[in-house]
Design a protein that fits this description.
The protein is of the alpha+beta class. It contains seven helices and 15 strands. Helices cover about 30% and strands about 20% of the residues. The two termini are about 15 Å apart.
Length: about 325
């Protein structure tokens, strides 16, 4: 069952959402004495188990880098639709620019948003957009080691050697998604981003002060309060499978706002297409699969049902 199918009243429950604090972890403690470091690592793994989401501060990504990215993001989305929707926009591959939900097969699957989905090796092609390219490169330079550090901590808890990630993942196998959610005249009737879980090991998100991100916790949607100092980290489907369900890839969505636009930036730490994902424990909950198989299954589900089903497709 997909997240969308599992939410019977997708539209009607948009406003009936509790605002809650998700775990907030100060990463500067990783550089203190051994006890502080171990406590911080424990908080990270506990959050990944119990929430699938957490926030981090003192993460090493400066406010300057984030503000530059937000400025460039706003500038690029101001480009007229007729230009953005061209196949060679930014000299990037087709389907880099996306709006709404091209796979929708019913009105509840429509989305009030637009996005740039950028595979990191393609950044070098943006030779005519030097300011945007420079800001992206600066962001990737600092967020990649952050992702690697968090993944190493999560892997250590499972006794999985970090060399697995070194062999299968890098900045060149990951991607960025720049999101814009325009003001919506009927926010109670359409969603910004459909409920879904991420195609990654982990995802690192910067959201602006507007908010709108909601996640599933204990069978209910909760709203994540914006924190200008924090980055949001969430576990993706691939880590849920690799951890044999110990870490949780949680469903999340974004609601539309009536009078303001919202921007966010997401870094998806993922593997190469031929990477093998295999549950570390026995008995395994998931069958062994390659990342390529996962992506093929996702595309098939989108084509047939207009919605991503996710990691449940690989349950034994």
């Amino acid at each position: 069952m997909s997240l969308l199918q599992g939410t019977n009243d997708l539209i009607s429950d948009l406003s009936d959402v509790e605002k809650r604090e998700i775990p907030l972890i100060d990463l500067k403690r990783l550089k203190l004495d051994q006890l502080e470091r171990e406590e911080c690592m424990k908080e990270i793994t506990e959050a990944a188990r119990k929430w699938g989401f957490f926030q981090v501060v003192n993460h090493g990504v400066s406010q300057e880098v984030l503000k530059n990215m937000q400025f460039e993001e706003k500038e690029v989305f101001r480009t007229p639709f007729g230009i953005k929707s061209q196949e060679n926009f930014l000299n990037l591959p087709s389907r880099t620019y996306r709006w709404g939900n091209a796979s929708a097969i019913n009105p509840k699957q429509l989305m009030w948003s637009e996005a740039l989905h950028i595979f990191l090796p393609d950044i070098e092609k943006m030779d005519q957009h030097k300011s945007l390219r420079s800001s992206i490169e600066s962001f990737v330079k600092v967020v990649t080691p952050l992702a690697e550090n968090l993944v190493q901590i999560l892997a250590q808890e499972l006794n999985i050697n970090f060399s697995y990630f070194q062999q299968n993942c890098s900045a060149n196998t990951s991607y960025l998604r720049l999101n814009r959610y325009p003001p919506c005249p009927f926010p109670s009737k359409v969603i910004g981003l459909l409920p879904h879980a991420d195609t990654s090991f982990i995802t690192i998100v910067h959201q602006d002060h507007i908010g709108g991100l909601q996640l599933m916790k204990d069978g209910k949607w909760i709203s994540v309060k914006p924190n200008s100092e924090a980055l949001i980290v969430n576990v993706g489907d691939l880590f849920q499978a690799l951890s044999n369900g110990l870490y949780t890839s949680v469903g999340h969505r974004v609601v539309a706002a009536e009078k303001v636009e919202r921007f966010s930036l997401a870094y998806f730490y993922g593997p190469s297409i031929d990477a093998v994902i295999e549950s570390y424990a026995t008995p395994p909950l998931y069958r062994k699969f390659t990342f390529g198989e996962y992506k093929e299954q996702t595309m098939k589900d989108l084509k047939e049902g207009g919605d991503k089903v996710g990691i449940s497709r690989f349950l034994l």
